[in-house]
Amino acid sequence: MSRQELEQLGIKIGLEIHIQLTKLKTKLFCGCNADYRDMPPNTYVCPVCLGLPGSLPSVNKKAVEFAIMLGLALNSKISNKTLFYRKNYFYPDMPKNFQISQYNKAGGVPIALGGQMILKFKEYDKRINITRLQLEEDPGRISYDGTILSSPIAYIDYNRAGITLIEVVTEPDFETPEEARIFLQKLRSIVEHLGIADLSLEGSMRCDANISLYGKNRVEIKNISSYKDVQAALNAEIIRQKNIYKHGGEIKQETRHWDSDKKRTFTLRTKEEEQDYRYFPEPDLLPIEISSEMITSIEENMPELPDDRINRFIKEYKLPRYDAEVLVITKSLADFYEDVVKKYQKPKEVSNWIMSDLMRHLNTLNIEINDSKICADDFIELLNLIDKGTISGKLAKRILQLMMESGKKPMEIAKEKGLLRINDLKKIQEFINKVFNTQPKAVSDAKKDPKAIHFLVGQVMKLSNGRCDPQITNKLIKEALNKI
Amino acid sequence: MTEDLTDDDIKHVAWLARIKLESQEEINEYKTTFNDILRYFKKINEIDTEKVRPTFHISRSVNRFREDEIKESLKEDEIMQNVPKRKDKFIVSPRII
Ligand SMILES: [Zn+2]
Question: Within an 8 Å CB–CB cutoff, is residue A50 touching chain B?
């Protein structure tokens, strides 16, 4: 659907994003190792995160500092006093039968309130208002034999239980799924620039969305597990709601579940309503007071944020704004760019290479620069080889792809695949002779019409897999034609 | 909180706690007990708290933090000693939808 079509639907979308603070060494309320990925189930658990009687939680100071950093980056108001609340529910993913979270009602104040992010699009700027930021603990992971419906039992792994989450809640300010995706992309870049999480890790950024059309009932979509999926999930839900309205039906307020395999949303039966969670202040944790000195000292040590980095790229490397914005989409890509430009000082050329070929290969392989096998030094070597004329720009594109797949050095690939440029006159002449022998008609054409020479050059390039130096080839063909 | 709880309220609270109430006698028993407790709170509600600020903690101290340092977790046999059913390193529970 085009933006105009979407506008007519009166779409309102709000997001709730859960971000794991993966740069913390320990969990939110206990000293268990937080680096649980790839660990056997139930390895990093202790009396606190298992909810054993008599155990007491204590707050990870760094988690609070990280949350303040994110609040400041999103222009939120940091609360001077904040509390933890118990959200009570009976489900095996939380062994305590409650989740320690924060609450914005019944006297509760989350760690930060308000804030905004400005999204830049070609035709317009969009301001997204943030409602609040809160700290809470991640539940454990449950898996099943097959699906939840077919499995009589559940397998529980509490390694994730107690991992620190920041929940970012936005106002329903998004009017297109694209805006939601761009927001998540930018939020991710901010989080990574702050150094509080690596969101390329599986399940480290999860999103729920609420969406309504024409100002009518709101549907909540759960389980959008990857930020890349948000646009697909919202599009699917918009089409579903639009069709129901088109046929005179009504949308009921409900919670739906996004199935990323089937690419559609399903009704999710939830019997708990907000009052059923019986939120009350966590008696085992003292309130947190955040002094203005603490905020100032965190503010003074804030790293460079994406918007500042974009402006610096424009100034320092004379890049167009568009280039700078694309490069800073992820911190790792911007870091890669700067690593290359430090030693290969043609910033616009590097940007062109990254934005076209490198990013295309990343997309095809569906990986990020950190997961690809290419390193900055090898990429610089490739660019130098083009400059020296050792390989042609065209073949360099192929070599780049092979570098990203294999992690081999450019020269190694060029030799292995026979992709080095041929400058040797004798060798080029051999190719020309072959072409002249097989294409007599083209040769006589070229003798009459000098423009037809391009065809012969093209044939030589084709025969040599693009390796012959085109200028030398051109010159030698002209000479050969004159001799006929 | 001013109205007495009904059978449906009791059934809902039981469901929230995943407790199975077998008979009407059981429901009646909980209903009586719950309503007694609520009547007691009604009594407390009569106190004029207009000028009293809400208290969430009786202690006046704040900011008891922990540094982000890894502590040893429990050993496998310690974890599993309270676990009624396991499979390999997983804890097994009935499926709850
Ligand atoms: Zn623990």
Answer: yes
Is 60 exceeded by the pLDDT of residue A189?
yes
ipTM of the complex: 0.86
pLDDT one digit per residue (tens) for chain B, 97 residues: 456 889 999 999 898 888 888 899 999 999 999 999 999 988 988 999 888 887 777 778 889 999 999 999 999 999 999 899 999 999 999 887 6
Task: Look up residue A424 and give its amino acid.
Answer: D
Average pLDDT score over residue span A61-84: 97
Q: Give the whole-angstrom CA distance, residue B63 versus residue A396.
A: 58
What type of residue sits at position A141?
R
Q: In whole angstroms, how far apart are CA A285 and each of A59, A62, A159, B61?
A: 8, 16, 22, 10
Confidence (pLDDT) at A451:
80
Residue extents of the structural domains in chain B: 7-45
- Model confidence at A270, in pLDDT bands (50, 70, 90)? low
Q: Please, which pLDDT band fits residue A437 given cuts at 50, 70 and 90? A: confident
Give the CA angle between residues A190, A192, A197 to the nearest 5°: 125
Which residue of A164, A286, A289 to mutate against B (max B Cβ within 10 Å)? A286
Q: Position A453: which residue type?
A: I
Q: Of B15, B7, B19, which is closest to residue A276 (Cα–Cα)?
A: B15
Domains and CATH numbers, chain A: 3-297 (no CATH), 303-416 (no CATH), 425-483 (1.10.10.410)
Average pLDDT over residues A114-126: 92
Q: How many angstroms away from the CA of B20 is the closest CA of chain A?
A: 13
User: Above 80 in pLDDT, residue A420?
Assistant: no
A148 in reach of chain B (CB within 8 A):
yes
Q: How far is the CA of A93 from the centre of ligand 1 (A)?
A: 14
Please give the single-letter amino acid code of residue A256: R
Asked if A155 contacts A133 with a C-beta cutoff of 8 angstroms, the reply is no
Distance of CA A283 to the CA centre of its chain: 38
* B87 min Cα distance to partner chain A (Å): 8
Contact A171, A148 (CB under 8 A): no
* Chain A CB contacts of B84 below 8 Å: none
Instruction: Out of B65, B68, B87, name the one closest to residue A24 (CB).
Output: B68
Long-range contacts of residues A471-475, Cβ cutoff 8 Å, at least 24 apart: A472/A423, A472/A425, A472/A428, A473/A428, A473/A431, A473/A432
